[in-house]
Design a protein that fits this description.
The protein has about 475 residues and is of the alpha/beta class. The chain has three domains: about 100 residues, NAD(P)-binding Rossmann-like Domain (Rossmann fold), CATH 3.40.50.720; about 200 residues, UDP-N-acetylmuramoyl-L-alanine:D-glutamate ligase, CATH 3.40.1190; about 150 residues, Protein-Tyrosine Phosphatase, Chain A. It is built from 15 helices and 21 strands. The strands form three sheets. The protein has a ten-stranded mixed β-sheet, with helices on both faces. Strands 16-17-21-18-19-20 form a six-stranded mixed β-sheet, with helices on both faces. A five-stranded parallel β-sheet has the order 3-2-1-4-5, with helices on both faces. Helix 9 runs antiparallel to helix 10 and helix 12 runs parallel beside helix 13. The termini are far apart.
C-alpha cells in the first residue's frame, strides 16, 4: 500500500447486497469497527461467524447475541463460509486470509461489508482526521431526538446505549468513514461531512497531497444530488469545499468563519458545556452541548446542519438532542473521581486531537488546579513525523508524563520514541517526564495530584487501561496518607 492506493481492495467496485453475501465470517471480529458491522449484519438476518485472538468484551457481547465466535485463527473456520471480511490491520500472511484467497472466496474489506449493510437507506458518512467519531455520535443522538431512529456504525460506543452499532427502524444510516486506508471511498453517501483535511496516516498516503486527493475522491463519491458539509475554519476542508463548488456540487460550510454558510456565533465554554448561536438559512438557533472544548461545539454544529439542512428535520428537536448528548467511550470519558481528583480517558492520537483535548481539559479545571496528562504516542512513523505538533499540544498541561511509543502495526524505528516529544518540551521549559512503564506513570501522577486536579490518559493504545489503576492508587493514598 503506497501513496493512498490500497493494493488489496478496489473500493470503487459495486457494493454486494447484504442478501447476496451468503454466510459471512469476520476475521478479528472483536475490533471496534469489525464488531459493529458484524452485529449489524447479524441483526439483519445474515449468517455471521467470526474469530479473534482473545475473548474480549466485544467478542463476549457478540457471543451473547448469538454470533458464533472462536478464539484463535484456523483455516478450518472457513468451512461453509461464502464471504470473508477483514480490515487493513490483518496481515496478508494470516492463515485464514491465505486460505480464503487460495479458495477463490469473496474477500471484503470491513468498509465494503458495511456498505452492504447500509442497503437502500439514506447514507450519511462522516470523515476527517479529527472529530469524526464524536460528530457521528452527536448526529445519531440528534436524529433520535428528531424521531428519525437511524441505523449506525461508529468507532466508539455511545455511553447511553453501550454499543457502537444499531439497526434502527428509520431509513437513515450514519457511518463513521475511516480515511486511514482509503476505505471511505466504499460508502457513496448521500450526505458527507468533512470535519477537517489534515496530514495524517502518512505511512499509507506518503504525503499531504495524496491525503487531499483521497478526500477529493471521497467528496466526489457523494451522490450527484447529495450534499457535502465541510468545516469552514479548517483550511483543508475549506479548499475541498471550494473545489467541489467549482464542480457544481451542493456544498454547505459551517464554523466560526464569517464566510461560513452555517455560522457559529458567541461561542462560550462554561463548566465543560459549550454554548453558541447558530445562524444559517434565515434562522438563528441556540446550540448547547455537554461536551468540553470549542471543537465539540463545531462537531455539534456539523451534526445540526446535517440533520436540518441535509435531512430536512426539525432543527429545534435536533438541537434538543444535542443538548442531551451522553458522550462516547474514550472521548473525554469520565472514569471516576477520588479525593477531588477527576480521571478522564481519551483516544486522541494525532497532534491536533491532542491539542484540542488539552485545551478542553484546561477549560474544565478551576483556576489554581492542575491538568495532568499521561500520553502514549501511537505509531513510530506518526511520532517521527509530528513530534513538534505533539509537544505544542501537550505544552499547556501542568504535568506531562510520556510513555514509550505504542507501535501497533509498526516495528520499532531507530532513534524514534517518546524522547522526540520530551526533548522539545523540556527545551521550552515545560514539565515533561519520560517513564519506562505504566506503573511508573501511575506513581508519578498520583504523587502530585491534589483535589481539583484533572488527570487525563491519552492515546490509541493500551494507555486506556491506566484510568482504573490511577483511581485505585488515589484511593490507596487516601486510605494511607
Amino acid at each position: 500500500m503506497t501513496h493512498g492506493v490500497n493494493d488489496f481492495f478496489d473500493f470503487a467496485t459495486a457494493t454486494v447486497p447484504a442478501d447476496a453475501l451468503g454466510s459471512v465470517h469476520f476475521l478479528a471480529i472483536g475490533g471496534s469497527g469489525m464488531s459493529g458491522v458484524a452485529q449489524l449484519l447479524h441483526d439483519q438476518g445474515v449468517p455471521v461467524s467470526g474469530c479473534d485472538g482473545a475473548a474480549s468484551p466485544a467478542v463476549q457481547r457478540l457471543q451473547s447475541a448469538g454470533v458464533p465466535v472462536r478464539v484463535g485463527h484456523d483455516p478450518g473456520h472457513l468451512s461453509d463460509v461464502d464471504t470473508l471480511v477483514v480490515s487493513s490491520a490483518i496481515p496478508q500472511a494470516n492463515p485464514e486470509l491465505v486460505a480464503a484467497r487460495a479458495q477463490g472466496m469473496r474477500v471484503l474489506h470491513r468498509a465494503q461489508a458495511l456498505a452492504s449493510a447500509m442497503g437502500a437507506d439514506t447514507r450519511v458518512a462522516i470523515a476527517g482526521a479529527n472529530g469524526k467519531t464524536t460528530t457521528s455520535a452527536m448526529l445519531v443522538t440528534a436524529l433520535g431526538a428528531a424521531g428519525a431512529d437511524p441505523s449506525f456504525v461508529i468507532g466508539s460506543e455511545l455511553v447511553d446505549l453501550d454499543r457502537n452499532s444499531l439497526r434502527g427502524s428509520g431509513a437513515i444510516f450514519v457511518a463513521e468513514a475511516d480515511e486511514s486506508d482509503g476505505s471511505f471511498l466504499a460508502y457513496r453517501p448521500d450526505i458527507a461531512i468533512v470535519t477537517n483535511v489534515q496530514p495524517d496516516h502518512l505511512d499509507f498516503y506518503g504525503d499531504y497531497a495524496h491525503v487531499q486527493a483521497a478526500y477529493a475522491a471521497f467528496a466526489q463519491s457523494v451522490a450527484p444530488d447529495g450534499l457535502l458539509l465541510a468545516a469552514a475554519d479548517d483550511p483543508g476542508a475549506a479548499d475541498l469545499a471550494s473545489a467541489m463548488r467549482e464542480l457544481g456540487r451542493r456544498v454547505i460550510t459551517y464554523g466560526e468563519s464569517v464566510d461560513a454558510d452555517v455560522r457559529i456565533e458567541a461561542l462560550e465554554i462554561t463548566g465543560g458545556v459549550g454554548h453558541a448561536w447558530v445562524v444559517g438559512a434565515g434562522r438563528t438557533l441556540e446550540l448547547s452541548v455537554a461536551a468540553p472544548g470549542r471543537h465539540n461545539v463545531h462537531n455539534a454544529c456539523a451534526a445540526l446542519a446535517a440533520g436540518w439542512l441535509g435531512l430536512r428535520l426539525d432543527p429545534q428537536r435536533l438541537a434538543a438532542g444535542l443538548a442531551a448528548f451522553p458522550g462516547t467511550r474514550r472521548r473525554f470519558e469520565r472514569k471516576g473521581e477520588v479525593g477531588g481528583v477527576l480521571v478522564v480517558d481519551d483516544y486522541a492520537h494525532n497532534a491536533p486531537k491532542v491539542a484540542a483535548l488539552v485545551a478542553a481539559a484546561r477549560s474544565v479545571v478551576a483556576d489554581g488546579s492542575a491538568v495532568r496528562v499521561v500520553f502514549q504516542p501511537h505509531l513510530y512513523s506518526r511520532t517521527r513525523d509530528f513530534a513538534p505538533g505533539f509537544a505544542a499540544g501537550l505544552a499547556p498541561a501542568d504535568q506531562i508524563v510520556l510513555l514509550p511509543v505504542y507501535g501497533a502495526r509498526e516495528q520499532p524505528m531507530a532513534g524514534v520514541d517518546a524522547h522526540l516529544i520530551a526533548d522539545l518540551l523540556v527545551a521550552d521549559g515545560h514539565p515533561a517526564q519520560l517513564v519506562a512503564n505504566p506503573e511508573q506513570a501511575v506513581r508519578e501522577l498520583v504523587a502530585t495530584a491534589r483535589a481539583g486536579d484533572l488527570i487525563v490518559t491519552i492515546g490509541a493504545g493500551d494507555v486506556t487501561q491506566l484510568g482504573p489503576q490511577i483511581l485505585a492508587a488515589l484511593a490507596q493514598r487516601a486510605a494511607c496518607p
